[in-house]
Amino acid sequence: MLLSMKVPVSVITLAALLSSLHAQSPAPRVFLLDPATLAAQKAHPDPAILKLATHSADLALKVAPVTVTTKPLTPPTGDKRDYMSLARYWWPNPDTPNHLPYVRHDGKVNPEINNIPDHELLNTTNESARALALGFYLTGNEAYAEHAAQLLRTFYLDPKTGMNPNLDFAQYVPGLNTGRDSGVLDGRSIAMLVDAIGLLATSKSWTAADSTAMTAWFTRYYHWLTTNTNALKEKATPNNHGSWYAAQTASVAMFLNKQDDAKKIAEGVRDQRIPSQFDSKGLQKYELVRTNSFSYSAFNLEALTELNAIVTPTGIDLFKPAKPNAPGLLTGIDALLPYDENHKWPHEEITAGKEDSLCPALLRAAAHTHDPKYTEAQPRFHCKASAYSLLEAANK
Which residues of the chain have pLDDT under 50? Predict the structure, then answer.
């Protein structure tokens, strides 16, 4: 048909070659999403996924570069490049003249945390960079990649503004400490950063020097995660904090080609953490003691299902219990499945409207098992479609 239209053979050959090269483009080095699914989407885009991805990337183009150095307080080191954050659930002490030391009210967020914006800036940078990187990967629009690179250089790599690779002063409690083990949780969006870098690999805007510098940053951060006293305390925490430590550390390990380390992390979670967290009905004893026990149970499931995605290349499947018929991730998800906004959770949950906290685990369970009950449940929990959720669903 093309020949009957008298299109030059050279043009046909070139078009076929370009189509072939496009279809055979290598899968990106990412871990939260399936690389093969992404490569297939790049070759043959789903219009719905493409529309959502470009919309998110367009919004992220409007996000200005930010840095931890703009916070009003200075860390104990005197270096504003050190990350800081205030403990979320700790409040001024009403029983002391100077209101120190702060006291804990679980589940009640102290608005003073907004006075130190490092956590928000970290998340905004990682989320925006990933949105831009995905937009670039799927469309080839270099403007997306250029802006993502600018965000990452400013926040991580610039000698004057780049965040130092530690969380020494994260979630500090006034009057008690300058930072604590729970602060490691602040770094959970690091996995998004890892994927963003993988998606930017073919961009001319993300240079070899950028890649080398980011690898150096992650090398230092991994050393901190695996040797720092607070980080090791967080690793040993039996609730969602330890699960998020595992997900974050495994993500960095995979980025640094430490696949054996990531596999060991996953094996420990499969063989020890999951059996200790879930009872025979799938309830999580360490989360049930919280004042927001539903959303924290879901939060832990989010961490564990995220870890499962990250370690897939190691051959570990965390959806399979360590022992046959033992409770596991699906048991935990099933335990929460009956309780949406119209069916009250029978345990304490002081914050209303957090039913959607189950969505990340629901989406991953649906993609992993292809059991329709997990897909059918998503509207009840107000799960919103995004490029990422559709890409997970497309993983066959």
Answer: 1-23
